[in-house]
Amino acid sequence: MFCCPACHGALSGEPEALRCERCAKQYGSIAGIPLLVEAADHASVDLRRAGGSLPTYNSADMGVPAVDAALARGDAILELGAGLDITTAPNVVTSDAFVYAADHLDVVADAHALPFADASFDFVFSLSVFEHLHSPWIAAAEIARVLRPEGRAYTLCAFMQPLHGYPDHYFNATEAGLRRLFAEDFLVESCGPSRFCTHRQTAVPLYRMREMAQAFRGGTDLDPRARWRTRRLERALMVASHQFQQLGDRMLELPASYELWRQIAPAVEALAVRK
Q1: How far apart (Å, rounded) are the C-alpha atoms in residues 52 and 101?
Q2: Domain range spanning residue 133?
Q3: Residue 106: which of 36, 57, 167 has the closest Cα?
Q4: DSSP output for 130-158
Q5: Same domain for 146 and 112
Q6: Whole-prediction pTM value?
Q7: If pLDDT is split at 50, 70 and 90, which confidence band does 1 have?
Q8: CB-based burial of residue 181 (10 Å sphere; 0-12 exposed, 13-18 middle, 19+ buried)?
Q9: What is the per-residue pLDDT across 6-60, written as a single tens digit (0 to 9) for each?
Q10: What is the rounded CA–CA span in Å between residue 169 and residue 129?
Q11: What is the tally of structural domains in the chain?
Q12: 134, part of any domain
């Protein structure tokens, strides 16, 4: 299944200690999971105790049409940035750059240098991963390399989400930006705001602004008028975030509201076909 991420040569040995037959690079493991990243620092990769919190989910139960279709077809599937995905689908290879839990993860891999031979998969997907990649254009090229001709790639990436995630957050993408990432090796079938990141996330900036006002009021010797204005701002932001969450679903049913929401959607998604 695996190959050397440096030269794509065949690997031999036990999963805990693999060696490339072409370039002689050696790779270790974490909790029995092959660590197929060049010059990896075990301590920084193993986040089972010290890493940021991630939600547990099952990619087979999320209702993402592109993923569901690939599972139904019996595609050979690669998931990038699987995190705490607990899927047991036998045709899904789960990968992540970090180990958050040993269960259900097949390989530690860098999306910029995947440890898989050319044309190994029919479908590759990533959920909220591309914003955490330091060079997402390289990852897009790697996805193209490991996909078979006419294989598909589904990518969900942050757009107007605030900074989040461990260990880093580098790039958010517009619809045009996500299309451009996959333009070289793919035909983009669809691209637009993703409904799999709830519209309620659009209210997060309102929470942050309210916290700014609270910090301003608590950390500065304000005159009475400025203190009154700050309290009014806090209240207005609280009411606005609450009302938006109550009305968001209904507003998005109106085409004009939906088009406006596209400009501030939390995430965008693209489905692309390998040329």
Answers
A1: 12
A2: 52-199+266-274
A3: 36
A4: GGG-S-HHHHHHHHHHHEEEEEEEEEEEE
A5: yes
A6: 0.93
A7: confident
A8: buried
A9: 999 999 999 889 999 999 999 999 999 999 999 999 889 999 987 667 889 999 9
A10: 9
A11: 2
A12: yes
- Tell whether 83 and 173 lie within a shared domain: yes
pLDDT, greater one: 132 or 51? 132
CATH number of the domain encompassing residue 57: 3.40.50.150
How far, in Å, are 16, 45, 179 from residue 31 at the CA level? 9, 12, 37
d(C-alpha 25, C-alpha 27), whole Å? 7
Q: What percent of the chain has pLDDT over 90?
A: 85
| 11-14/107-109 β-pairing | unpaired
Q: At what angle do helices 204-219 and 224-252 cross, to 10 degrees?
A: 170
Q: Please answer whether residues 157 and 71 qualify as being in contact, where contact means their C-beta atoms are separated by less than 8 angstroms.
A: no
> What are the b/e assignments for 108-147, b being 16+ CB within 10 Å?
bbbbbbbbbbeebbbbbbbbbbbbbbeebeebbebbbbbb
Pairing relationship of beta strands 107-109 and 29-30 according to DSSP bridges? unpaired
Nearest residue to 187 (alpha-carbon basis) of 153, 227, 157, 212: 153
Q: How far apart are CA 206 and CA 97, in angstroms?
A: 32
Q: Is 80 exceeded by the pLDDT of residue 164?
A: yes
